[in-house]
Design a protein that fits this description.
The structure is a single chain. This protein is about 15% helix and about 40% strand. The protein is globular, with a radius of gyration of 21 Å.
C-alpha cells in the first residue's frame, strides 16, 4: 500500500478533478498523495467515484542543477526540498454520466480544476464535453489538462491524441490551458503536472472581513456502531469556506437545514448549532478560512448529518445567509446542442410544465417550469435551496431518459 502524505496545515485552495469515467482521475490523485479517494464500498465494487472524495497535497520546491523542481513528496531523487510553497485539496468528482449532479456540486467549491483525458480514447468523450461545460458554467477559470495513460499508446498515437485535445480545447474558454502528458500508473511526468498545478492555478483572493459562509458537500456521523450514548459525538459537516472565517465556539446557522414533508410538500427548518471542532484530514484547527476542505464538528444529533444528509446546505453566522427559496426566477442562456451525448441534439426552448434539474451552489434540486417568457423562466422547486441574485445555475432536462445539460441560468 502506498504511504499517505500527511499535511500539517490548512490547504490554500481546492483543485477539482473532471473528465470521462475511467480516464484515471483517482489514480492520479493516489500517485500524488497516497490517498485513494474512492473509499466507499460501492465505489470500490464498481470501480468509479460515486461520492465526492478529497485528498490534500503539499507542493514543495526543490533546487536541482540550478533549476526549480516542484513535487508533492518531501523527497525527490535523493534531494530535500527548499520550501513548502503551497498546499492544495483535491476534490475528486464522479465521471459517470448518471452522477453528473454530484460533479456539479463539487464544482461549486473548486478554485481550479484538473481535466483528465485518456490518451487511448477518442477526444472528446461525452462526459469530457459535459464536465468541461460544467466547469465553465460554475465559473472555474483556471484548469490544467492531463493527458493520461501514455503507457497504452505509441508515440504517434500520443501525438495524434494531443492534437485532438488541442482542437477540443479551442472550442472552450480553456484554449490556452497547459496539457501535461503522464502515465499515472507508472508515475511518469507527474512532477511536471505538480509544477503546472502550482503555476497555472493561483490562490484566489479571499476577503476575511465578509460574513462566514461555507458550502456543504459532505456530512457524516463519525460515531462507531455501539458507541455508548454518553460518548456520542455531534454530527460533522464537510465542505469549503467560500468567504470569511470561522473559529471553534462560533454559533452557526445551516440553511435550508432539516427538510421534511408537510401537507405533501417539502418544507425546511433552519438548524442552529455551535462549532465544536475544526479539522482538515490531518490537522485540528482553532480557526478556518477559505481554501481546502474543512470538517466542522457540531453539537447536532448525528442522525441529521449521517450519509450526506446535509449535502447542499449553506452554513454561516446566524442571520447573514441568503434566503431559502421555493421558487427560482432565472435569466437563461441555452446552448445550441445538448451536452453529454454522442450525437448532436439541438436544444429546444424551455416550455411550461417542463421538469428541470437545477444545480444551485452546492445543492441539486428538481423543479417544474411555471413561467417561460423568452430568456426568463420561473421554476417551482421540489426541494428549497439557498440562493441570491447573481448566482449561476446549471440547467438540465431529460434527454433519452438521462439528465443532460442544456444551459445556464442566473438568479434574478
Amino acid at each position: 500500500m502506498t504511504k499517505k502524505i500527511k499535511v500539517d496545515r490548512q490547504s490554500d485552495l481546492n483543485i477539482g478533478t473532471a473528465g470521462h469515467v475511467d480516464h484515471g482521475k483517482t489514480t492520479i490523485i493516489e500517485a500524488l498523495t497516497g490517498v485513494w479517494t474512492s473509499s466507499h464500498s460501492e465505489e470500490l465494487r464498481r470501480g468509479i467515484t460515486i461520492r465526492i472524495g478529497y485528498a490534500d497535497m503539499p507542493i514543495y520546491r526543490y533546487r536541482i542543477s540550478d533549476k526549480d523542481v516542484y513535487w508533492s513528496w518531501p523527497e525527490y531523487d535523493g534531494h530535500k526540498p527548499e520550501e513548502l510553497v503551497r498546499v492544495v485539496s483535491f476534490v475528486d468528482c464522479p465521471g459517470h454520466e448518471s452522477l453528473m449532479a454530484n460533479m456539479l456540486s463539487g464544482a461549486a467549491v473548486m478554485d481550479g480544476a484538473m481535466l483528465v483525458i485518456a490518451a487511448n480514447e477518442p477526444v472528446p468523450r461525452p462526459q469530457t464535453k459535459e464536465h468541461t461545460m460544467a466547469l465553465q458554467i460554475m465559473g472555474v477559470k483556471n484548469i490544467v489538462v492531463v493527458q493520461n495513460k501514455l503507457d497504452l499508446v505509441s508515440k504517434k498515437e500520443a501525438k495524434e491524441n494531443y492534437e485532438m485535445i488541442k482542437e477540443f480545447l479551442s472550442t472552450t474558454i480553456y484554449a490556452d490551458a497547459p496539457i501535461i502528458p503522464v502515465s499515472a500508473v507508472h508515475r511518469v511526468n507527474l512532477q511536471y503536472l505538480v509544477e503546472a498545478l502550482y503555476k497555472h492555478i493561483p490562490i484566489p483572493e479571499r476577503d476575511l472581513s465578509k460574513p462566514y459562509r461555507m458550502f456543504v458537500i459532505r456530512s457524516f456521523d463519525i460515531n462507531k456502531p455501539g458507541t455508548p450514548y454518553k460518548e456520542l459525538r455531534g454530527g460533522v459537516i464537510g465542505g469549503s469556506i467560500v468567504q470569511g472565517k470561522v473559529k471553534v465556539g462560533d454559533e452557526i446557522e445551516i440553511l435550508p437545514g432539516y427538510l421534511y414533508s408537510e401537507g405533501g410538500k417539502i418544507v425546511h427548518q433552519p438548524l442552529y448549532t455551535t462549532v465544536q471542532s475544526l479539522r482538515t484530514r490531518y490537522v485540528s484547527l482553532k480557526e478556518a478560512y477559505g481554501g481546502g476542505l474543512i470538517g466542522v464538528q457540531t453539537d447536532l444529533d448525528p442522525y441529521l448529518t449521517k450519509s450526506d444528509n446535509l449535502v447542499g446546505n449553506v452554513v454561516g453566522a446566524p442571520d447573514t445567509l441568503p434566503p431559502v427559496l421555493y421558487e427560482l426566477e432565472l435569466d437563461v442562456e441555452l446552448f445550441k446542442y445538448v451536452v453529454g451525448t454522442d450525437e448532436s441534439i439541438e436544444v429546444k426552448p424551455i416550455s411550461m410544465n417542463e421538469r428541470l434539474r437545477l444545480n444551485v451552489g452546492p445543492a441539486v434540486t428538481l423543479g417544474v417550469v411555471t413561467s417561460a417568457r423568452g430568456e426568463s423562466i420561473s421554476v417551482k422547486l421540489h426541494r428549497p435551496v439557498v440562493a441570491e441574485e447573481g448566482w449561476r445555475v446549471a440547467i438540465a432536462t431529460r434527454v433519452n431518459n438521462m439528465w443532460r445539460l442544456i444551459g445556464v441560468g442566473k438568479v434574478r
